[in-house]
Amino acid sequence: MRRFLVGQLLFLPSLVLAQEGSPAGPVPPALLQARRAALMERMGEGVAILRAASERSNDPPDSEYPQDSDFRQDNDFFYLTGLEAPDGLLVLLAHENGPDEVRLFLPPRNAGRERWLGPRLGPDARAAEQAGLPASAVRSVADFDQVMDSLVTLPDGRPPRLFIKRSRSVAPNLPAGRWGSASGPVDLNPHLGALRLVKDSNEIARLRRAVEISLEGHLAAMRVARPGAWEYELEAAAEYEFRRLGAERVGYPSIVGAGVNGTILHYDESRARLEEGQLVVMDMGAEFGYYSADITRTIPVSGRFTERQRAIYNLVLAVQQAAIEAVRPGVTMAQLNEIARRTMRERSGDLCGRQSCDAYFIHGLGHWIGMDVHDVGGYSRPLAPGVVLTIEPGIYLPEEKLGVRIEDDLLVTADGHELLSARVPRTTSEIERYMSQARSGER
Ligand code: GLY
Ligand code: MN
Ligand code: MN
Questions:
Q1: Distance, CA 53 to ligand 3 centroid (Å)?
Q2: Closest ligand 1 atom to the C-alpha of 283?
Q3: CA 108/CA 140 separation, integer angstroms
Q4: Over 80: is that where the pLDDT of 174 sits?
């Protein structure tokens, strides 16, 4: 049957290609050009090679028609090209004297594969246009060695400085001895991290939408939470909203933990039943157009917090609020962490026995978000406008089967911050009101 189908294919259909049709739309070519220019500016002089992701498949490696092909592009490759094409190579030639150059190598189109997997971008004008490149810059991967040989031969015979992504599965298989500096390649990751840390307008738009969608998911989960519901029902309610609103996948496996499961930081089995009197920690975020939100809410199964739960919750909330209020350009993550931990120590009273509750706040205060939910970029740099981060304190008391985490997403602005996830109930009274309205049919 396969052979028969392949044999009938004499033309290549030009249907809508994956990312063009996604709800996030294409990345504006001018922004892709600016991202590449910024990277080459950092490189100074040299050649960078980045490899696209491959389609994944459990079929044999030489299978032409992989079934398990929920393709997701490598983040850096997408950041710099906006393309979802698998198995490409991006080459950036940075010149200190003279204009920089870019080459993109893509696999040729294949009618037989496309009959099974759908239309793909090939090395042609369409890919060039989407990536913001001249048509002459896009070539077939089959031409890679030949083009590179002609591009990187320096007049004095010295090999160029080579930049690749170290310690990533997408590092290219470099043709040995043909080119590359004697001192070994330079790691591109710190340069990419520094760039991706500060989001441009299109990245911020995608993150905003990822957060909006995730908020709807959280609200949906709050509406189905009740004694006797299963953790997976809450997860399904949220993830249904994610997909319904255009998210392509979850940003990370959803965490829905009731009772003691809420004290396991990355519990993602979602197999237990919710019981009266428990809290449920829900840490769920959608990925929209390659960008992921990361939001946590902790809610009472019964719809009302017990006094003990309320006290622990309000301590976590006060710590989160103190850190949020300090978010502005120039502040470091270390300073935010110090503010949070000091607030926790000062306000713990005897809530956690003789120890400060700080001892039960067993993870970091927050992290950058973006294309990776724990996004790239060093943590020593002070916050700057365009950085997007989470603030997520928590207290975990397994002996009491009680865990509380509150996690929100913030955009650093010129004079402070914007709380992107403000719309989902966060205080105990907001949560109780929302759940009560949901149960009485008002939501
Ligand atoms: N969702 C994982 C985290 O909060 O870091
Ligand atoms: Mn997080
Ligand atoms: Mn989270």
A1: 25
A2: 1
A3: 6
A4: no
Q: Is 396 a catalytic residue?
A: yes
Active site residue 266: yes
The reply to whether ligand 1 has any atom less than 6 angstroms from the CB of 294 is yes
| 3 state SS for the chain | CHHHHHHHCCCCCCCCCCHHHCCCCCCCHHHHHHHHHHHHHHHCCEEEEEECCCCCCCCCCCCCCCCCCCCCCCHHHHHHHCCCCCCCEEEEEECCCCCCEEEEEECCCCHHHHHHHCCCCCCCHHHHHHHCCCHHHEEEHHHHHHHHHHHCCCCCCCCCCEEECCCCCCCCCCCCCCCCCCCCCEECHHHHHHHHHCCCHHHHHHHHHHHHHHHHHHHHHHHHCCCCCEHHHHHHHHHHHHHHCCCCEECCCCEEEEHHHHHCCCCCCCCCECCCCCEEEEEECEEECCEECCEEEEEECCCCCCHHHHHHHHHHHHHHHHHHHCCCCCCCHHHHHHHHHHHHHHHCCCCCCCCCHHHHCCCCCCCECCCCCCCCCCCCCCCCCCCEEEECCEEEEHHHCEEEECEEEEEEECCEEEECCCCCCCCHHHHHHHHHHHHCCCC
Q: Which atom of ligand 1 is nearest to the CA of 285?
A: 1
Query: Does residue 387 come out as left (phi exceeding 0), alpha (psi in the -120 to 50 range) or beta?
Result: beta
State yes or no: is 191 an active-site residue.
Answer: no
State the Cα–Cα distance between residues 413 and 389, nearest whole angstrom. Answer: 12
- The rounded distance, in Å, linking the Cα atoms of 380 and 408 is 21
Contact (Cβ atoms closer than 8 angstroms) between residue 245 and residue 24: no
- Taking ligand 3, which is a single-atom ion, which protein residues have CB atoms under 5 Å away? 283, 294, 407
283 catalytic, yes or no? yes
The whole-number pLDDT of residue 2 equals 36
Which tens digits make up the pLDDT trace of 303-318? 999 999 999 999 999 9
C-beta atoms surrounding 354 within 10 Å? 6
Q: Which of 342, 363, 423, 439 is catalytic?
A: 363
Average pLDDT, the chain: 90
Query: What pTM was computed for the model?
Result: 0.93
Buried-exposed string 190-215: b where 16+ CB fall within 10 A, e elsewhere = ebbbbbbbbbbebbbbbbbbbbbbbb
